[in-house]
Design brief:
Layout: E1 9-10, E2 17-18, H1 21-30, H2 52-60, H3 65-71, H4 76-86, H5 106-117, H6 120-130
Antiparallel strand pairs: 1-2
The structure holds zinc ion (ZN) (2 copies).
One zinc ion is lined by residues 11, 13-14, 16, 27-28, 31, 33.
Length: 132
């Protein structure tokens, strides 16, 4: 038997942790709980997104999913980030794929977007940073 001690890197914004510093740095930059996050998905969407911080304010002010989608330029990850950060969907902390909230089907919008992007490599990379 050999015992090995390793460092664990925790995200400042959510519960995710990894064993490599580099992958956690990358995750933190894009973490959906980070108000100043960079969105790696926006480039695949039509309009420019106002960003997670602004979407959070809109969600707090009671914006509908359609209004959020328009402000996010159609980017489901930006919408998710804004809603999550607004605290309007606490249950999403543990279940980001919860489908019934306000009738918005995150999983469906995301899978439609991936079908358009059609890049297996990018999907794999994405999943390793977000977990969904
Ligand atoms: Zn995180
Ligand atoms: Zn985005």
């Amino acid at each position: 038997m050999r015992e090995q001690k390793k460092s664990v890197y925790y995200c400042d914004h959510c519960k995710k942790h990894t064993l490599t510093k580099q992958s956690m740095e990358k995750h933190e930059r894009r973490c959906t709980s980070n108000p100043d996050r960079e969105c790696a998905m926006c480039k695949h969407c039509e309009g420019g997104s106002v960003g997670a911080g602004k979407l959070k304010e809109m969600a707090l002010a009671g914006a509908t999913i359609d209004e959020l989608r328009e402000a996010a330029g159609g980017c489901p990850i930006c919408i998710l980030a804004g809603i999550k950060q607004s605290g309007a969907m606490k249950m999403w902390e543990d279940d980001p794929l919860h489908e019934s909230v306000r009738g918005w089907n995150f999983k469906k919008e995301l899978s439609e977007l991936w079908a358009e992007i059609n890049s297996h490599a990018e999907l794999q990379e994405y999943r390793s940073y977000y977990g969904y």
